[in-house]
Description:
Layout: E1 4-5, E2 7-10, H1 26-39, E3 43-47, H2 53-58, E4 69-75, H3 87-93, E5 99-105, H4 108-115, H5 119-135, E6 139-145, H6 147-153, H7 155-167, E7 172-177, H8 184-194, E8 203-207, H9 214-224, E9 228-231, H10 245-254, H11 256-259, E10 262-263, H12 268-272, H13 274-285, E11 302-303, H14 306-314, E12 332-333, H15 341-350, H16 360-374, H17 383-394, E13 402-414, E14 420-432, E15 435-443, H18 446-454, E16 469-477, E17 486-493, E18 499-506, H19 509-527
Parallel strand pairs: 1-10, 2-3, 2-9, 3-4, 4-5, 5-6, 6-7, 7-8, 8-9, 11-12
Antiparallel strand pairs: 13-14, 14-15, 16-17, 17-18
Helix pairs in contact: 1-13, 5-7, 6-7, 8-9, 14-15, 18-19
Keywords: Amino-acid biosynthesis, Branched-chain amino acid biosynthesis, Isoleucine biosynthesis, Transferase
Family: Belongs to the alpha-IPM synthase/homocitrate synthase family.
EC number: 2.3.3.21
Amino acid sequence: MTRERLYLFDTTLRDGAQTAGVNFAIEEKLSVIAMLDGIGIDYVEAGYPGANPTDTALFGEARALKSARLTAFGMTKRAGRSASNDPGLQTVLTAKSDALCFVAKTWDYHVDVALGATLDENLDSIRETVRAGVAAGRETMIDCEHFFDGYKANPDYALACAKAAYEEGARWIVLCDTNGGALPHEVAKIVSEVTVHIPGDHLGIHPHDDTGCAVANALAAVGAGVRQIQGTLNGLGERCGNANLVSLIPTLKLKPEFRDRFETGVSDEGLRNLTHLSRMLDEILNRNPDRHAPYVGVNAFATKAGIHASAILKDPKTYEHVPPEAVGNKRRLLVSDQGGKSNLLAELDRIGLKVSKDDPRLGRLLDEVKDRENVGYAYEGAAASFELLARRLLGTVPAYFDVDGFRTSVELRHNSQGALATVCEAVVKLTVQGESLMSVAEGNGPVNALDLALRKDLGVYQPYIQDLRLTDYKVRILDGGTEAVTRVMIESADDSGDSWTTVGVSANIIDASFQALVDSVTYKLMRSGAPAP
């Protein structure tokens, strides 16, 4: 059976850039464009030439892409001016792009209040803008702003706007739920009515997520006839964001009701790169990835309950709606006080420890995990500390060094400029292969000072930790009051690009931090192949 083609339009770099706190430098935009082009996205809307120096520079030269069509965004010409006498329109028309997307008012209320134009003047603006784009030899599309609100208020006029663009040769007429207030049943009904006048293979959908229905609205629109979907990576966008292409793409490619009817430009290999792409965007924006994001979140295929883990080991389809590796993710069977032997066996197998399900040490390890989590440890989020705990019980962790003691101090004193400043100092005493070592360091806070002192001199093991660095530090107070128990989670990384998390628990935050730091250094030595003493 021949499948229909769906076209994917990414507006991360334009609409997504309206997210609070998000800004893209031109180098970052080029990096995102390359990643989107690499997985098979059809259109990449990279910005609004003339609106800011970054976008103007980006569209100032041609960009060679493999398959994606670089798209410039703009507005329809202003009422009372010709297309040739509208500087904003001319800037977009001369941009070095493959396609043009113009936003047009389609709600009669906005035409009157926002534009201060007549309804006929707005229709003329749409016609002349599309005519100019087509005459420039560019694939032209109209983004019908507030289309669903406009259609509810005045269906004849909203439809007239869409038809005007289509009749002048627009390749796509995109129906936009600009304020994100439409619901799936409304989208399906209105799209079905529009397809009576405009073929579905010329219609697109651009939903916002203010009701949490953007992905559902996009799928409803596809079911009703549209063949282009506009969205953003990780659902970026103003207010609550846009439809999340990272959720939509796997649904379209893996769910039978869409997979069997439609095809997209995203290859299977591109789909397997989706998790990496999603996390790379967060890295560029210096944001923490959503651990519970559908398909790509680190917890998207994580199972904690022991009975579920047993079922997954026998048949992954029992609790996984798609194979995690299809989207570049991986299964996680979490070790916790709620997990059973199946979780432990799966995690031990993952880290390369082969243990029989009848091995009595397995029961002891499970009891140890539950006892420790009872006092505050959380191994489901600290896999490195769990691995060390398991290997210590199994006798496979070398004693690289012994901690003989540590001390921290915080002092308010005058610095060299004569100003009062807080100085934090740490002293760490270790024994490494029979040699006593003491290191002193100052840091930006007592934990940073401890970290620097611990890693300052490990004797023969120093070369193995040269690229070790602390990348994240989280503290959680488990019980209230002045005698509260504190849990510290530390994320570390090295030049290999890998990262790992360790945990420490104590009534003393410095002690809890030091436990996590020691585990981090020990884990780094073990994974670096440092020789046992």
